[in-house]
Amino acid sequence: MESTASSQSFKNYLFFWSGQLFSLLGSTIVQFVIIWWITIETKDLTIISVAAFFSFLPQFIFGPLAKLMGITTLFMLSSLLNILFIAIVWLFSNVRNTNYERVYGLDENNNN
After folding, report:
1. Tens digit of each residue's pLDDT (9 = 90 or more) over 41-56
2. What is the pTM of this model?
3. What share of the chain is helix, strand, coil (3-state, %, to 5)?
4. What is the DSSP string of 66-107?
5. What is the CA 26 to chain-centroid distance, rounded?
6. Least confident interval from 13-22, 35-44, 86-95
7. Would you kindly state where each structural domain of the chain is located, as residue ranges?
């Protein structure tokens, strides 16, 4: 059974997708800034590459789940995880004298 689109459903459609557009734009900017901040703070290529890998990991995990889950549920879940990871990075950035080698398990005394 096919339903026809009304002007209200079209407005809801545009409202939803424009919100997702700005959410994706904001997430991409935050991802770029976090990797740039790690570059400035650590100047270590290993840590930068690990951060870049983990920044693309949600796309690899949630991509195949798009058909299994509803698209709105997937958008909400990915936005919530994005907020969680931003909060974690914010907490780490506010801790003074953070030993990044120890955080990432790259301590020289540990021989990792």
Report:
1. 888 888 888 888 887 7
2. 0.56
3. 80, 0, 20
4. GTTS-HHHHHHHHHHHHHHHHHHHHHHHTSTT--HHHHTT--
5. 10
6. 86-95
7. 10-110
Instruction: Report whether 111 contacts 102 (CB < 8 A).
Output: no
Q: Which two tokens stand for residue 21?
A: 């557009």
**Token pair listed for 53:** 């890998």
Alpha-carbon distance values, 4 to 1, 8, 19, 40, 41 (Å)? 10, 11, 23, 53, 54
Tokens of 106: 């790259």
Structure tokens at 100: 């990044």
